[in-house]
Amino acid sequence: MAYRLALLNQKGGVGKTTVAINVAGALAARGNDVLFVDLDPQGHGTEGPGLADAYDAAPPSLFDVLLDLDSRSLINELVHEHEEFDVVPSNVDMFSAEPKLTTAMRSRERFGMALDELDRDYDFVVVDCPPSLGNLTDNALLACRNLLIPALAEGTSVRALEILFDQVDALQQGYGVEIDDVGLVANRVETDGEATETRAWFEDIFGGRIPAWEVRKRVARKRAWNEGASIFTHREDCDMEDAFPHSAAHLEEVAG
Questions:
Q1: Which end of the chain is more exposed for a tag (fewer CB within 10 A), N or C?
Q2: Is the domain 3-255 a CATH 3.40.640.10 member?
Q3: Virtual CA dihedral for 204, 247, 144, 113, nearest 10 degrees?
Q4: If we measure between CA atoms, which residue out of 28, 7, 44, 127 comes closest to residue 82?
Q5: pTM across the whole model
Q6: 37: Cβ–Cβ under 8 A, 6 or more apart, which residues?
Q7: What pLDDT, on the 0 to 100 scale, is given for residue 243?
Q8: What's the confidence (pLDDT) of residue 151?
Q9: Measured distance CA(41)–CA(132) in Å, rounded
Q10: Rounded to whole angstroms, how far apart are CA atoms 249 and 73?
Q11: Which CDD domains match (predicted)?
Q12: What letters, b where the CB count within 10 A reaches 16 and e where it falls short, cover 168-185?
């Protein structure tokens, strides 16, 4: 089975999708067969790899896969080939998924059931989650059981991560599963006192049990986005490239 990884922080504006795309790109650049799934109704993880047209495509979409248990095998029809990794795009209809899942049978397990239907063997499935806590993020956490956290090195991240950990604990207790936080990506790090203080808090709360990687703000990543690629196929040097291969190497290690 593929190693499934959810990238989640319910605090918006942390660069979650950019981190997710570049983690997927780093894994692919190391020779892994990767599927990137955009579970966020906003569709940035669909636009980022250059698949904006798929976001407005007619059904079936990921929305149908999640809402109709009999349609979950349709996930195979949604897979788009990309230069670096395969992509299951989000769709504008996904904005209706959250309320509809609230009353659906097995509402928090449907995404995992769909991933089980994949007819291609991947080494990694990387899931870009919505910037909120709810049925969609619960689906991702229960399906993946592995969590990579993008966060900003600023004071507002502290409370956001505390809330996230509370939700993870609730799911673990409610479903009798173990959800591992496998790393933290401190994104868009600035060289100021607040960033230093928050990085120290990251170290305190995790106690050194998981690695943390620092990514500074670089325009090259934005230009790579505009080309529909990660920084690993973008034709421009970026001194932040090393952070993502290091995270990919760690993920390969924990995946076994």
A1: C
A2: no
A3: 170
A4: 28
A5: 0.89
A6: 45, 62, 87, 88, 115, 125, 126, 127, 128
A7: 83
A8: 85
A9: 11
A10: 31
A11: ParAB_family
A12: beebeeeeeeebebbbbb
Chain segment 75-87, per-residue pLDDT in tens:
999 999 999 999 9
Paired strand residues for 4: 125
Chain mean position to CA 68: 23
Domain boundaries, the chain: 3-255
Greater confidence (230 vs 58) lies with 58
Encoding tokens for residue 153?
């090195």
Q: Scanning the structure block, which residue is given the tokens 């173990």?
A: 178
Residue 10 pLDDT greater than 90, yes or no: no
Token pair listed for 119: 């007819």
